[in-house]
Amino acid sequence: MAIPVAKRDRVNEARCISCLDCVEVCKTSATDALSWGPPKKLARSWSQAALIAIMLLCISGAVVAAYVFPIPSFVQTFDQTRDAQPERTATLLMEVNNLSCRGKSTLFAFFVDRDDLYEIDGYLKIEACPGPSPAQVHITYDPAMTDEGEIKQAITESYFDSEAGFWRHSPFDIEGYDPLDGDE
Ligand code: SF4
Fold first, then answer.
1. pLDDT tens string 55-84
2. What's the Rg (C-alpha) of the chain?
3. How remote is the CA of residue 36 from the centroid of ligand 1, in Å?
4. Taking CB atoms and a 6 Å cutoff, what residues make up the pocket around ligand 1?
5. Residue 2 Cα, ligand 1 centroid: separation in angstroms?
6. Mean per-residue pLDDT for 81-88?
7. Terminal-to-terminal C-alpha distance of the chain
8. Contact indicator for 147, 110 with CB cutoff of 8 Å
9. Which domains are delineated in the chain?
């Protein structure tokens, strides 16, 4: 990668591909010119195994935190097409099946923002964590304009696409919600 390793105390170049060929070439050197591992200061007081254990603990902690405190990776506010956020809003928390990726999230937003019999009035904001079912979804809405039942209906009812001339069936279902009676 044309990195002048002989002139470096530490290789920080982004173009280093970590092949470690340079370490391999120099490892028999009496001066140990190149090495790989934790910084020497740390290595004096911490064994490499301890540093790897700390690193694994940090990674495990990050994975657990991502599950316990998920951060929405899909957010849609419909700023251009819907009312501005009112002073008082309500939030509907749901677990939605089959919301597995960003493409499905876009389809989910299509059903929430539909323009037919099940259209939802007023302000809406979707915050979703698409992934393995069920995916967590928060929908913030204007309680003066709609309610939880209407939002759940919009998500689960089929949509008739009059331009294309066919029904689009919703692939989504909501944990604990039965579209036939609308009760939880
Ligand atoms: S690890 Fe590979 S790419 Fe990086 S400096 Fe060494 S030889 Fe070059």
1. 999 999 988 887 778 788 899 998 888 889
2. 27
3. 11
4. 1, 3, 5, 11, 16-22
5. 8
6. 91
7. 61
8. no
9. 5-68 (no CATH), 78-174 (3.30.70.100)
Spatial contact of 179 and 169, defined as CB atoms under 8 Å apart: no
Report which protein residue has its CA nearest ligand 1's atom 4: 16
Cis amide bond preceding 38, omega within 30: no
Nearest CA, atom 6, ligand 1: 22
Please give the average per-residue pLDDT across 148-162, as a whole number.
Answer: 92
pTM: 0.63
- Ligand 1 atom index nearest CA of 21: 7
**Ligand 1 midpoint to CA 39 (Å):** 17
In which element (H, E) is residue 42 found?
A: helix 40-45
Distance CA 174, CA 108 (A): 12
**Looking at residue 42, what is its pLDDT?**
61
- pLDDT tens digits for range 163-180: 888 888 999 999 999 888
Round to whole Å and give the CA distance between 172 and 162: 21
User: Does pLDDT of 147 surpass 80?
Assistant: yes
